[in-house]
Structure prediction request, 338 residues.
Amino acid sequence: MVGYAPGEQPQEGQFVKLNTNENPYPPSPRVAEAIQDAVERGLQLYPDALASEFRERAGDVLGVDPDWIMAGNGSDDILTIVTRALVGQGQQLRMPTPSYILYHTLAQIQGSEVDEVAFTPQWGLSPEFATPSGDPRLALLPNPNSPTGTVVSLPAILETAESLPCPLLVDEAYADFAEFHSVDLVAKSERIMVARTLSKSYGLAGLRFGYLIAQPQLIHEFRKVKDSYNCDALSVAAATAAIGDQAWLRDNVAKVRATRGRLSDSLKKLGFAVIPSQANFVWCRHAEQNSQQLYEELKSQRILVRYMKYPNWQDGLRISVGDDAQIDALLAALKSMV
Ligand SMILES: *Cc1c(COP(=O)(O)O)cnc(C)c1O
Prediction:
């Protein structure tokens, strides 16, 4: 197999890094304190295998019973556990396209089949998505979607889940930047599950922490599949502190959204077609300039964005919403190129 190629993480030199949708702002200061406390409590014992401390705090924040939550080593771990549990060799994993490329890798690891359905031109799910001719065992829906930043409405998600012959996992890596989320749908339908991560909105990509919200009878089965100690004591302590500081989250999300608006408007003025985004990145494509060349030229100026090419769609640039200084640097560089 080819394997997933994550976005570049340059280890040397100063880059304006706008390629992997990290948060430009640091996490809550409570995170460092919680890690320090956990170190002082000692690391010689194995951690709580169920990350109970985190599940209780997250349950309070989300209005969900802790038994409906499973913690993971990043939401990629959650996606792996759910795929492993539900999709066997030769079976189908359903997803819309264009979407998160890692889903292909998850299918490949299982020896299962990628079953893709194109989004509608308005970035909704086509009726075909909900009525497969084959026998998918799991459907994945990033919402907001990557790389487009677009969203599928809650009624459409519910309707799709009720029609599909398999569970639907809504991958909400970017939901904190959007106008709505689907956590409340989990109680309405056993078939709907929601994956979250602390990597993007909480500014903790380096920590590795994500979680799943699903009905407890499903969580019970997924626990059998996960590594016993998939989250370490430091990350559980840190994630608990982070999700407990909702004021910090709201503040950063507001800043990112404001900068997102300014970035989108400025790109349009420079001649880019920009898809309206509810995430912390925008997908854009210049009317005349070659996207790959723009990517290369930006990189030579030490500005890193993500160049992506989808075989059945288009190529373009996915640009993460950095802080205002980073976006000013990007826009100034683009101005001299287009
Ligand atoms: C970033 C991202 C994730 C993975 O997040 P981690 O918690 O860092 O593993 C999952 N899904 C989508 C769509 C993402 O963009």
